[in-house]
């Protein structure tokens, strides 16, 4: 970047002190000069982060007008006073609504019909008063609709405190339960509840049973998972018949079940954990339906009698197929809904239990996302689902599974005259270096020329088998309307093209994730969509690892990079079993205590591979209370980049000192963070207003 494009108030960036720490494993020494930044209680660490924040604020000062303009644009597209589509459960219709000027939703219901009087269950705005950060985890009404269980996190560290509210009297129970996690289940007696607790590393490892009539100190520990590679969760079948205790690592699962009418009984095991075997449970009538990868890499569907659900009694319902990835099933009284991925896109089939007849739902666009909506009722012929694409705002449909008629209940409004006919989306294929075809979802405003001069914003993830959805964002219109092309690289490590797509982007194949992304970027350049001086990229968490890896491999290919809460210090982090992102991660990346994996991970770990060379413009975002990717990973990466990079390009570290992995809570503060990121991107691409 030429010197005249730098802001005039350019400061000398903060320089972190170097305090060499020797880390030795497998007779290999790594010297980490910035290991000391892990010391959160050290005032020098906080001072460094605050100095970086001041530097970032000063370096971005010339974009403040643009930030405000972007924020207003994005806010003006949102219907601030709005209502979710109510869903029915027994006599009640539940929904949430928002009010202009208020950052959080208000949770409500009506009894008997939508014309009935509104009852406010919980106003998150009132609860959030006085808190810089506020998030709700559990929010579940009891089976008789008289009690509400909810949990809150006020730091972003994802350790929740649970409360119980009597909806008849609007009074809280005196007792609360600390250090709980996201999952929860009510027994059918409306008094017994099951909740999970986290250990020091934020791993949900215990299942507890509590009765609302009994002191918390007398709660019963139902199960404790001692294997640090496994997380624990609890849930309930849609039939309301069973409570499920689910235990899972990245590649192995185990499920126990308990009749919800007998919540003080003993959980029964369906099938003991077998290394590499995963399975999920759905209940219908006298059977459990089991989605499993047992001798079926793309998964198959089995069923077994509830009375004897061990594996020897499993019968095939949907066999394994090489070209179809079975994501899971959803059971209703008369219908089975089957979610799959085929040719890279999500598909939905509906099957009648009585006859076995089935049909496939169709969707109109070349790239899209579809997922099940809120369907709490078992005895219904209506399936609620959500559909969205890069052009179509999130749309809630009610689908009659008998007549196959779909009713659009609501499309998220985009104010300001959004006209989808002005935009075009496409499904492209890039060729990876090993010849594999890698999908790209792309959207742009009609009228652009493929002359190699368009600014382009490319993103990706490529880990944990997560398929990056081609979903709509009204915020993104602020980029598209300025001529920016937006693209998603559906790289290996996700599951877009089936389970093998995931397997070929993990362990000792992880580098395929990075080279796939580079191949997508090179393809977009070769096809005239953009050029390397107009190409910006972004990714968060494991997608931040992607960002760090590709800028080490091909810094010349990209103009600007946004890395959100990036997982970049891979070797050190997953050797530290005191951290949340450790033991369970060995099933994703490999265990570096094994030299083969140590050498391989070290060869791509972004922090370990920073070199003395030129890097693109970089904005790195972090959260001080992040329990998934600790703040010191982006901080250390920034410090090492400052030490070694040989260019004058911008390098900014922005740490939210009151939030965690998900960034700011509340819709207005979240919008401001997006406006900041977009202002950086547009400014670096020469599109600052």
From TrEMBL:
This protein's UniProt keywords: Hydrolase, Protease, Serine protease
Record GO biological process: proteolysis
Keyword Protease attributed: yes
The Peptidase S9 prolyl oligopeptidase catalytic domain, residue ranges: 472-686
Domain Peptidase S9A N-terminal: from-to ranges: 14-411
Extent of the signal sequence: none
An annotated Gene Ontology molecular function: serine-type endopeptidase activity
InterPro entries reported for this sequence: AB_hydrolase_fold, Pept_S9A_N, Peptidase_S9_cat, Peptidase_S9A, Serine_Peptidase_S9A
PANTHER family for this protein: PROLYL ENDOPEPTIDASE-LIKE (PTHR11757:SF19), PROTEASE FAMILY S9A OLIGOPEPTIDASE (PTHR11757)
Record family assignment: Belongs to the peptidase S9A family.
Protein name per its UniProtKB record: Oligopeptidase B
Source organism: Chroococcidiopsis cubana SAG 39.79
């Amino acid at each position: 970047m030429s010197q005249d494009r730098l802001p005039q108030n350019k400061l000398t960036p903060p320089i972190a002190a170097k305090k060499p720490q020797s880390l030795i494993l497998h007779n290999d020494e790594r010297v980490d000069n910035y290991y000391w930044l892990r010391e959160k209680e050290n005032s020098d660490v906080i001072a460094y982060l605050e100095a970086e924040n001041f530097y970032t604020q000063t370096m971005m000062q010339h974009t403040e007008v643009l930030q405000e303009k972007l924020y207003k644009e994005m806010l003006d597209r949102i219907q601030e006073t709005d209502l979710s589509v109510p869903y029915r459960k027994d006599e009640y219709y539940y929904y949430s609504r928002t009010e202009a000027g208020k950052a959080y939703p208000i949770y409500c219901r009506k009894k008997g019909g939508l014309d009935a009087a509104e009852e406010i269950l919980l106003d998150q705005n009132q609860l959030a008063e006085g808190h810089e950060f506020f998030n709700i985890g559990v929010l579940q009404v009891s089976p008789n609709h008289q009690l509400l269980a909810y949990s809150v996190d006020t730091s972003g560290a994802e350790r929740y405190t649970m409360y119980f509210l009597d909806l008849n009297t609007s009074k809280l129970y005196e007792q609360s339960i600390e250090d709980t996690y996201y999952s929860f289940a009510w027994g059918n007696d409306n008094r017994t509840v099951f909740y999970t607790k986290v250990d020091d590393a934020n791993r949900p490892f215990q299942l507890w049973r509590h009765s609302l009539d009994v002191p918390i100190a007398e709660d019963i520990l139902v199960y404790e998972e001692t294997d640090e590679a496994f997380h624990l969760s609890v849930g309930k079948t849609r039939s309301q018949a069973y409570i499920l205790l689910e235990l899972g690592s990245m590649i192995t699962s185990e499920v126990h079940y308990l009749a919800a009418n007998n919540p003080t009984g003993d959980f029964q095991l369906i099938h003991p954990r077998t290394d590499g075997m995963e399975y999920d449970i759905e209940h219908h009538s006298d059977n459990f339906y089991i989605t499993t990868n047992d001798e079926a890499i793309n998964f198959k569907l089995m069923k077994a009698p509830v009375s004897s659900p061990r594996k020897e009694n499993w019968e095939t319902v949907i066999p394994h197929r090489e070209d179809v990835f079975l994501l899971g099933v959803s059971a209703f009284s008369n219908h089975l809904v089957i979610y799959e991925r085929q040719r890279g896109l999500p598909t939905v089939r509906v099957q009648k239990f009585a006859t076995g007849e089935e049909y496939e739902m169709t969707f109109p666009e070349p790239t899209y996302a579809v997922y099940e909506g809120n369907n709490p009722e078992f005895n219904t012929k209506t399936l609620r689902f959500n559909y969205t694409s890069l052009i179509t705002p999130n749309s809630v449909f009610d689908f009659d599974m008998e007549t196959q008629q779909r009713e659009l209940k609501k499309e998220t409004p985009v104010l300001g005259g959004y006209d989808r006919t002005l935009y075009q989306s496409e499904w492209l294929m890039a060729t990876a270096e090993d010849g594999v075809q890698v999908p790209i979802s792309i959207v742009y405003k009609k009228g652009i020329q493929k002359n190699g001069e368009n600014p382009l914003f490319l993103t990706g993830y490529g880990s944990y088998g997560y398929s990056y959805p081609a979903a709509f964002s009204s915020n993104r219109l602020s980029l598209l309307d300025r001529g920016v092309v937006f693209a998603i690289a559906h790289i290996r490590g996700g599951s877009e093209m089936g389970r093998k797509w995931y397997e070929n982007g993990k362990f000792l194949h992880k580098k395929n994730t990075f080279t796939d992304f580079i191949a997508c970027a090179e393809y977009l350049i070769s096809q005239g969509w953009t050029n390397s001086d107009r190409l910006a990229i972004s990714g968060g968490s494991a997608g931040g690892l992607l960002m760090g890896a590709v800028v080490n491999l091909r810094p010349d290919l990209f103009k600007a990079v946004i890395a959100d809460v990036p997982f970049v210090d891979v070797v050190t982090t997953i050797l530290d079993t005191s951290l949340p992102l450790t033991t369970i991660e060995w099933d994703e990346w490999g265990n570096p205590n094994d030299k083969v994996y140590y050498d391989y991970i070290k060869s791509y770990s972004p922090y370990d591979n920073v070199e003395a060379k030129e890097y693109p413009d970089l904005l790195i975002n972090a959260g001080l209370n992040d329990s998934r990717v600790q703040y010191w990973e982006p901080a250390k990466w920034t410090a090492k980049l400052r030490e070694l990079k040989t260019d004058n390009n911008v390098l900014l570290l922005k740490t939210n000192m009151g939030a965690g992995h998900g960034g700011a809570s509340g819709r207005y503060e979240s919008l401001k963070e997006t406006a900041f990121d977009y202002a950086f991107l547009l400014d670096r691409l020469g599109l600052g207003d």
